[in-house]
Amino acid sequence: MSIWPSVLSGVTLAGGASAWAACHPASQLFGRTVTRIPSRSGVALTFDDGPNPAITPSLLDALDRHEVRATFFLIGRWARASPAIVGEIAARGHAIGNHTDTHPNMLWLSTRRIVDELVRCQQSIEGAGARRPMLTRPPYGFRGPQFNSAVEQSGLSRVVMWSVMGRDWSPHGKQKLLERLKRVRGGDIVVLHDGDDAALGADRRETVQALEYFLPRWRDAGLRCVSLEEAGSCADRT
Ligand SMILES: [Zn+2]
C-alpha cells in the first residue's frame, strides 16, 4: 500500500501537525536531521542555491578576509554552469553539500525522482573536481516520508536543516537581515543565500555586507564560524 493515503489522511485529520512534520526544520518525524552543532562557541554559516558567479567569488574573498569557513549547499545545474567556482569553494577549505540538481519541491516527488535529483547533483559537484558531498539540504526544507530513504540510496549521510533562517532572498527579508543575524548564538546553523534557484546572477550583496558587519563582531563575542565538516560530530546532538 502506498504511504500517501495515510499521509493525506494525516493532513486531513491532523492538518497542522503533518505540515509541521514536512516543513519545520526541527521536525524529526520523517527522519533524523541536523539543526544545530554541538558547540557553545561555534556557528555554522551555510549558503544555499549557488554557485552564483555574481556573488560567490566576492563572498569567498570576504570569508577569507575574516578567516572563517562555511558550508555551501550547491544546486547541481549551477555547479555545471560554474565548475571553477565549485573548485574554488573546495580549495578554500569550505564544505560542500547537495541541494539537488534543479531545486524542486520534493514533498510530493517519488523516491526515484528524488534519488535522480540528488545523484545528478552529486555527479555535478564531483565533475567540478570537489569531493562527493555527504551532506544534503532539501529545497525549502520540504521533505516527506520518502526523503530519507532517497538520501540513503544516493550515498548521502546527513540531512542538514537550520536554527536561524536569514530570509535574505526577499526585499523584506533583506531589510530585516541585520536584525535576524543579531539572534545568532553558539551552536546555531544559519541559512543565507549566495544564489537563487530560479536564475544565475542573483544580487546578494546585502548578504555579503551583513557578513562584513557581523563577522568581526561575532569573533569579538567569542564565536567561531566553522564549516559543518569542522563541526564534525554535529549529527550526534540532534
Ligand atoms: Zn534553496
Q: What descriptive keywords fit this protein?
A:
single chain, 238 residues, alpha/beta, TIM Barrel, two-stranded parallel sheet, 8 helices, 8 strands, globular, disordered C terminus, binds zinc ion
Shape: globular
**Helical proportion, percent range:** 40-55%
Q: Helix count?
A: 8
Q: Quick one: CATH class? A: Alpha Beta
CATH-level-4 superfamily name:
Glycoside hydrolase/deacetylase
How much of the sequence is in beta strands?
A: 5-15%
Major beta sheet summary: 6 strands, parallel
Number of domains: 1
Mean pLDDT: 89
Structural class: alpha/beta
Assembly type: single chain
Distance between the termini: 31 Å
Could you state the order of secondary-structure elements as H and E? Answer: HEHEHHEHEHEEHEHE
Strand segment count: 8
- Radius of gyration computed on alpha carbons: 17 Å
Could you say which small molecules are bound to this protein?
zinc ion
Proper CATH architecture: Alpha-Beta Barrel
Contiguous low-pLDDT stretches (5 residues minimum) are 1-13, 233-238
CATH topology: TIM Barrel
Task: Characterize the structure shown.
This protein is 40% helix and 13% strand. The two termini are 31 Å apart. It has a single domain, classed as TIM Barrel (Alpha-Beta Barrel). The strands form two sheets. Strands 1, 2, 3, 6, 7 and 8 form a six-stranded parallel β-sheet that branches. The chain has a two-stranded parallel ribbon with strand order 4-5. It is globular, with a radius of gyration of 17 Å. Helix 2 links the parallel strand 1 (42-50) and strand 2 (71-74). It is of the alpha/beta class.
